[in-house]
């Protein structure tokens, strides 16, 4: 104990171990108070969700290295890619690029008509879109402007040719009497007057309407505060995960509890957490959380479901007890 | 998971009865004032109850409780700072040892007080790591598992805690220990 009087104890571990325990705690009284607090339904401390979860850590340990490696590869590829001129937003490009009869939709007015040689050397994604409009290309063209290079049309590898300066958005503006642009399901443009134009138009008409309504609803969501939107999206993701990966759903809602402490979806997050715990087989934890949930939200619409699950688990435990002690 | 599959799961009551004393002392070492000690301890065991007790794994029950107590102590310190009050450090009772004369006894008590103050002055995460490894003889792997941190982070915290503790002891006029002596057998058990 005496750090000054015993030279052989001049190290930290021994010094700390020789320290007397500063507190004598009355365990019986403390446990009685603990029981009273549980019965009373004391609120949980706010830091409870910041505690590590074994499953969340496993998930992070498993996927973070892969994500990191993927990010590095993507970053390296982006860095090594040839510089491209300043491009407008591809979505606005699709909306404003005029369709030239007899050619693919991603040809600008400044490009010459595509001959047989040009079609033969066009990128495969565009060829597939022209020949079989119902079949979406495997990948939308990353930089459609590269195909605008007249000099590169006759070459074997158009991707390595330097792209010419892009025409301005005003120059590409759609005429007022032009038909609305139609897109492939994956966002790649279709040929209007080509071989499969009619089929494509018919097939994608409903998709265009659906996209228009989706765009208006997404505009509404975007008009909200970004934080609220992130909270809603996170909750939706957690709900999707609940059925197939409850551990990930639990981890996500706990992260949400920390991230959105003053969020307005705490109730839903706690419900997902309770159901996730039961789904993941963590019945003891689930029971405790469910009791707190029922106490905190007595008028919850999820109350009945939580009570049903609780009753079911109770019956299962009873059956197991009876089976183990006949 | 059925009860038969997890026979060694420790429920809250068992944990409380076996380890409440450890948690109380641990919290006191992390700078929780004696008048607030029971409140913070109750918070810890409330969380233990909600998390369904202790599930055996690489972390020992003391590591598991220590990690939760560290969070509680951090939260407690923040609350204290918000109330603009000084973080109270625990002052141990005067210890008596019949082998020592009164002068030596006084020096021992002063050393002990200085060490407690130095520990309480550290960041709770650092002092918790130090106490769990040095005092409780936990392995760094077990502490990492309980705290949800990589093992490397635990080693880094341990190193930093030793350095800061040495500095704090020097500030208080104490001769700092020369080196840490983790229980080598335990510390090498990295999972």
Describe this structure in words.
The complex is a heterodimer of chains A (326) and B (191). In chain A, 55% of the residues lie in helices and 0% in strands. Chain A is mainly alpha-helical. In chain A, helix 10 (266-279) runs antiparallel to helix 11. Chain A is extended and about 70 Å long. Chain B is mostly helical and 191 residues long. Chain B is 62% helix and 0% strand. Chain B is built from 8 helices and no strands. In chain B, helix 3 (61-82) runs antiparallel to helix 5 (124-135). Chain B is globular and about 50 Å long. At the A-B interface, helix 1, helix 2, helix 3, helix 11 and helix 12 of A face helix 1, helix 2, helix 3, helix 4 and helix 5 of B.
Weakly predicted, low-confidence segments of chain A: 1-9, 92-196
Strand content of chain B: under 5%
Low-confidence stretches of chain B: 1-7, 180-191
Count of alpha/pi helices of chain B: 8
Largest interface: A-B, 54 and 69 residues
Distance between the termini of chain B: 25 Å
| Rg of chain B, nearest Å | 18 Å
Termini distance of chain A? 56 Å
Task: Determine the structural class of chain A based on helices, strands and strand pairing.
Answer: mainly alpha
Topology:
The complex is a heterodimer of chains A (326) and B (191).
Chain A: H1 12-18, H2 27-40, H3 54-80, H4 90-96, H5 116-120, H6 124-131, H7 197-223, H8 226-244, H9 246-259, H10 266-279, H11 283-296, H12 303-324
Chain B: H1 12-29, H2 37-50, H3 61-82, H4 102-121, H5 124-135, H6 140-147, H7 151-171, H8 184-187
């Amino acid at each position: 104990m005496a750090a000054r009087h015993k030279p052989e104890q001049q190290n930290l571990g021994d010094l700390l171990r020789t320290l007397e325990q500063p507190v004598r705690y009355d365990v019986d009284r403390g446990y009685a108070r603990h029981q009273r607090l549980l019965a009373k339904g004391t609120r949980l401390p706010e830091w409870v969700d910041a505690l590590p979860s074994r499953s969340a850590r496993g998930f992070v340990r498993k996927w973070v290295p892969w994500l990191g490696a993927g990010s590095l590869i993507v970053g390296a590829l982006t860095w090594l890619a040839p510089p491209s001129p300043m491009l407008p937003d591809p979505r606005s490009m699709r909306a404003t690029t005029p369709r030239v009869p007899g050619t693919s939709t991603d040809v600008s007015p400044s490009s010459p008509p595509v001959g047989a040689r040009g079609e033969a050397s066009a990128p495969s994604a565009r060829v597939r879109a022209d020949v079989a409009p119902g079949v979406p290309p495997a990948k939308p063209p990353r930089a459609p402007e590269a195909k605008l290079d007249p000099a590169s049309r006759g070459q074997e590898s158009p991707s390595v040719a330097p792209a010419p300066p892009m025409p301005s958005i005003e120059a590409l503006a759609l005429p007022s009497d032009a038909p609305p642009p139609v897109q492939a399901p994956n966002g790649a443009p279709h040929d209007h007057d080509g071989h499969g134009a009619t089929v494509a138009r018919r097939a994608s008409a409903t998709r265009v309407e659906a996209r228009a309504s989706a765009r208006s609803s997404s505009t509404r969501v975007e008009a909200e505060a970004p934080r609220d939107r992130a909270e809603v999206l996170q909750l939706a993701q957690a709900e999707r995960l609940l059925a197939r990966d409850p551990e990930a759903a639990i981890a996500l809602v706990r992260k949400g509890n920390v991230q959105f402490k003053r969020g307005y979806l705490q109730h839903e997050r706690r419900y997902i957490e309770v159901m996730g715990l039961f789904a993941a087989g963590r019945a003891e934890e689930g029971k405790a959380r469910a009791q707190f949930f029922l106490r905190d939200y007595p008028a919850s619409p999820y109350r009945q479901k939580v009570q049903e699950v609780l009753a079911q688990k109770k019956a299962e435990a009873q059956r197991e007890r009876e089976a183990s002690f006949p | 998971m059925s009860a038969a599959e997890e026979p060694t799961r420790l429920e809250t009551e068992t944990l409380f009865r076996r380890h409440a004393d450890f948690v109380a002392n641990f919290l006191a070492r992390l700078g929780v004032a004696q008048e607030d000690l029971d409140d913070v301890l109750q918070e810890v065991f409330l969380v233990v109850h909600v998390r369904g007790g202790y599930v055996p794994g690489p972390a020992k029950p003391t590591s598991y409780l220590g990690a939760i107590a560290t969070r509680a102590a951090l939260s407690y310190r923040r609350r204290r700072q918000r109330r603009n009050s000084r973080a109270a450090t625990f002052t141990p009772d005067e210890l008596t040892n019949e082998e020592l004369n009164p002068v030596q006894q006084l020096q021992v008590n002063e050393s002990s007080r200085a060490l407690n103050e130095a520990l309480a002055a550290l960041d709770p995460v650092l002092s918790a790591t130090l106490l769990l490894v040095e005092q409780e003889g936990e392995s760094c792997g077990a502490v990492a598992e309980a705290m949800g941190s990589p093992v490397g982070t635990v080693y880094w915290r341990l190193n930093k805690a030793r350095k800061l503790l040495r500095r704090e002891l020097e500030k208080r006029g104490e001769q700092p220990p020369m080196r840490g002596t983790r229980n080598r057998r335990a510390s090498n058990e990295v999972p």
